[in-house]
Specification:
The complex is a heterodimer of chains A (262) and B (366). By secondary structure, chain A is of the alpha/beta class. Helix content of chain A is 32%, strand content 18%. Chain A has a single domain, classed as Thiamin diphosphate (ThDP)-binding fold, Pyr/PP domains (Rossmann fold, 3-Layer(aba) Sandwich), CATH 3.40.50.970. Chain A contains 8 helices and 8 strands; from the N terminus they run αββαβααβαβαβαβαβ. In chain A, helix 1 crosses helix 6, helix 3 crosses helix 4 and helix 4 packs across helix 5. Chain B has 2 domains: 182 residues, Thiamin diphosphate (ThDP)-binding fold, Pyr/PP domains (Rossmann fold, 3-Layer(aba) Sandwich), CATH 3.40.50; 102 residues, Rossmann fold (3-Layer(aba) Sandwich), CATH 3.40.50. Chain B is α/β, with parallel strands linked by helices. In chain B, the strands form 3 sheets. In chain B, strands 2, 3, 4, 5, 6, 7, 8 and 14 form an 8-stranded mixed sheet that branches. Classes of the chains: A alpha/beta (262), B alpha/beta (366). At the A-B interface, strand 2, helix 2 and helix 4 of A face strand 2, helix 3, helix 4 and strand 10 of B. Strand 2 of chain A pairs parallel with strand 10 of chain B. Chain A: Pfam families: TPP_enzyme_C.
Chain lengths: 262, 366
Amino acid sequence: MIAPDWFREDRLPHIYCTGCGNGTVLNCTLAAVEEMGWERDGTAFISGIGCSSRAPGYILADSLHTTHGRALAFATGVKMARPDLNVVVFTGDGDLAAIGGNHFIHACRRNVDMTVVCMNNQIYGMTGGQGSPTTPEGAFSTTTPYGSSEPAFDLAELAVAAGANYVARWTSYHVKELTKAITTGMQTPGLAFIEVRTQCPTNFGRHNKLRRVPDMIEYLRSHAMLVSKYDRLLEEGAEIPEGTFSVGELIRRKRPAMGVKQ
Amino acid sequence: MSRVEFMQGNAACAEGALAAGCRFFGGYPITPSTEIAETMARRLPKVGGVFISMEDELASIAAVIGAAWTGTRAMTATSGPGFSLMMENIGYAAMTETPCVIVNIQRGGPSTGQPTRAAQGDMLQCRFGSHGDYSTIALTPNSVQEMFDLTVKAFNLADRFRVPTFLMSDEVVGHMRERVTIPDSVDITPPAPLAEGSLPYEAGDDGVPGFAPFGSGRSVHVTGLTHDERGYPDTTDPETHDRLVRRLVAKVESARRDIADYEVTNPDAETVFVTYGPPSRTVEQVMRDHPDESVGHLRFRVVWPFPEFALQEFPDAKVFLMPELNMGQMVREVQRHVDQSVISIPKIGGELHTPAELVRVLEAHR
């Protein structure tokens, strides 16, 4: 078991469905916390609403499970009032990009020193599989029964544009790379945004011919392309296969940050 | 020692917050409350505090609640439209028992309404505005001095009862300039700490659990979901919900006498004005102009939890007259607690009642 000291074992069993990717992301995050050597008394986990946001409830530390979309605003208050605390935010695509979109761009702009891990399963999972702002065009959900007709947000690119000091994207398949990215994010002063494409076989997969967990994970693996190659193909004007997304470190920079421990 | 200044109500509110040890302000500019944010922006960095201009009012109250969970005294200030935006997170503060202060410099509504005009139109919203059952504390200053004093008091009540506490002022008092006495120090009562061996949401007889802010080593889980005494979600057991929500309401309502703050003038009177906030200033003018012991005045400094027993201070009362800067909000609370006739004197549009208007009503009901 990874980071056994950080789990609230009396909260088990957890609410995640069989085959859900969120547990993997939680494991990778706690592995990064251990790697950082952070103390329980000096670390706070904050989240909004949704499947992703239940994660802090399973961690033995101070944790704030807030309202839908507002986790980053709550976290800004915690971190600005107590810069000596390490702050980690768990969020999801609905929480962060829909109802919380305004807080997302402003938290990146302020570059508040915190690590934001977004479990992007491209669906509203908790409410039973409705289309979200990251549901791919054409994908089926209970509210896009004829295929989504809206373009999806690229969360990592959005964080880069809005000013976060560290931005990376991986998937729940890439556990080693993901753990390293979260650790790097935690080491980087300013806002670190790590988007994790995760599988939701229950509410995304079953509407999109990816009902089996291995199929969903294989889909994530096979559609992830290293950002260096992705950018090169873009530059060359080469065709990028449909559904392919970039993974890796999108940016690491030193813009002025707020709420950094002195 | 203390110092005497000539000051605006909103500035006095900010000074009261600073004196009370407020060290975090998250806000968004909105007329007619903005001077509070401006004063805090200028003053907080000089006392080691944090001022942050958030992206909207939802974020403002969220940041305040986050800061409060680090054990920092935290506040926001707003007006009608911003107050409406804060409602969901105010319910979150009530549910999670987060001590914080929300100042509402009320203006004419609904919607954008009259940004530069006074009203008392949010008196029921501050009590019932968020969904579900809960209880809150609301204070109603009528002077610049009370903008200072009641802001200090709001912080102490918020901490003592671990409840979002409202300073329900308005454009008249917020923008009024008067003499104010600022003491060198004020009484500060921090929240009771979480005792060793106690659970984070386990309360004693007073219904208020001990507070273990983040970083104090207690690994507290805070959630807006219905939770048990450990703070863990338990959203389907009817008993858990019943026990939690009844306690949230009872911890405030059962302390009504303790929290109550009101002034009684001429307790033997037969005709009694009941006021809160600036209409009390007009009543005071009427009583100065027409001294008459058969006319009384009950003035609330705290309206929520509603101190209904204060109405019994006038045993000979035959009629209560209630001027408010709304269509009649708190008057409903008075009406349901007395047998006598209660006459609402509503006024909207942004101006105070004139003394002549109140005298006319007085003459008609005696």
